[in-house]
């Protein structure tokens, strides 16, 4: 649990407000619901709720409801045919964390509601329930996919996790933390940081996968730099958001393939004709063609350089290099 508490890095206003809310709820031994987009750190927050509570020396049990499938009922509640200690029994005196609670079948939701309200089979088992979801549970209740009474009980209070895109001041702090850990895992002695260009990109990118995506991207960047340069003596200058990016990337086969919703293919777009270069040399003609591709990509991405780079199957920094080459970098 100490590790869980220490990994909650950040000083942005949105994050500090969230930490204050966690601290206040930790001492109140009622169910808590942690909601937020994927990758925002819901498990770490649930762990902090336990670590700061009067139960911190007792058992912490965590279960991913989406991963257990048909065995969830037996593992959660036990029974005559289940010859192991149930999760509720194992968490006696402590906290049971139910991640992806929306994946729990309705019949098990009803059993959980009964346990919370009346106890486990009338026994003296005492467990605090903390649940988490990346879905809008009230909407699932309206659709008949989640038990309204269970939601009422779980939502004694709700912690809504701020997405990374509103935690701008924390992005570089987290990136440096993940990079330093990756450097240590590689057996290197030091980390030279990130280039100014990379720092600018990290702060401007929207991070749809939040902290989990940031961690993967930073570890990939450190790993590639270590492989390509034979060490980490220079600041990280290349970031790859999409590891699938390649000029020959497969985009067909099974329906839409990797294309984004509503994305147009090059043949569907209006393309400007190439400049009249027939009388020019090879270098000038290839430069003109390259420039036309850059302009096409920028038009497609509405001047968003990241989208333009993805359109051409290039990394962000490869695309920025082309902008410099053609005198287009701002």
Describe the protein in words.
With 330 residues, the chain is of the alpha/beta class. The protein is 46% helix and 7% strand. Helix 7 (106-118) links the parallel strand 3 and strand 4. The chain folds into 3 domains: 2-162, P-loop containing nucleotide triphosphate hydrolases (Rossmann fold); 167-229, Helicase, Ruva Protein, domain 3 (Orthogonal Bundle); 266-325. The two termini are 47 Å apart. The protein has 15 helices and 5 strands. A 5-stranded parallel β-sheet has the order 2-3-4-1-5. The longest helix is centred in the middle third of the chain and has 20 residues, at 210-229.
Count the DSSP helices. Answer: 15
- Kindly name the structural category: alpha/beta
Distance between the termini: 47 Å
Uncertain runs are 1-6, 254-279
Percent of residues in helices comes to 40-55%
Assembly form of the protein: single chain
CATH class of the largest domain: Alpha Beta
Order of helices and strands: HHEHEHHHEHEHHEHHHHHH
Largest sheet: 5 strands, parallel
Side by side, the strands of the main sheet go 2-3-4-1-5
């Amino acid at each position: 649990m100490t590790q869980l508490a220490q990994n909650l890095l950040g000083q942005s206003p949105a994050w500090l407000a969230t930490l204050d809310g966690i601290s206040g709820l930790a001492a109140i031994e009622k169910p808590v619901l942690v909601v937020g987009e994927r990758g925002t750190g819901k498990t770490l927050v649930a762990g902090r709720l336990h670590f700061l509570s009067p139960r911190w020396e007792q058992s912490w049990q965590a279960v991913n409801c989406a991963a257990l499938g048909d065995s969830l009922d037996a593992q959660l509640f036990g029974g005559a045919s289940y010859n192991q200690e149930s999760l509720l029994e194992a968490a006696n005196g402590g906290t049971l964390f139910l991640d992806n609670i929306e994946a729990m079948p309705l019949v098990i939701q009803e059993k959980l509601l009964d346990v919370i309200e009346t106890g486990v089979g009338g026994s003296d088992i005492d467990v605090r329930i903390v649940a988490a979801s990346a879905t809008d549970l009230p909407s699932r209740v309206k659709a008949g996919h989640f038990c309204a009474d269970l939601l009422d009980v779980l939502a004694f209070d709700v912690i809504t996790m701020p997405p990374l895109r509103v935690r701008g001041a924390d992005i570089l702090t987290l990136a440096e933390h993940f990079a330093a850990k990756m450097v240590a895992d590689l057996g290197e002695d030091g980390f030279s940081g990130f280039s100014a260009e990379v720092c600018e990109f990290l702060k401007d990118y929207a991070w749809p996968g939040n902290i989990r995506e940031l961690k993967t991207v930073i570890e990939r960047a450190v790993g590639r730099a270590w492989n390509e340069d034979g060490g980490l003596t220079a600041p990280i200058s290349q970031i790859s958001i999409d590891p699938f990016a390649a000029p020959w990337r497969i985009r067909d086969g099974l329906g839409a393939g990797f294309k984004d919703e509503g994305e147009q293919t090059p043949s569907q777009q209006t393309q400007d004709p190439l400049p009249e270069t027939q009388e020019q040399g090879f270098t000038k003609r290839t430069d003109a063609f390259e420039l036309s591709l850059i302009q096409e990509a920028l038009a497609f991405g509405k001047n968003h350089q990241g989208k333009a780079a993805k359109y051409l199957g290039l990394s962000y920094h490869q695309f920025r290099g082309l902008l410099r080459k053609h005198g287009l970098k701002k």
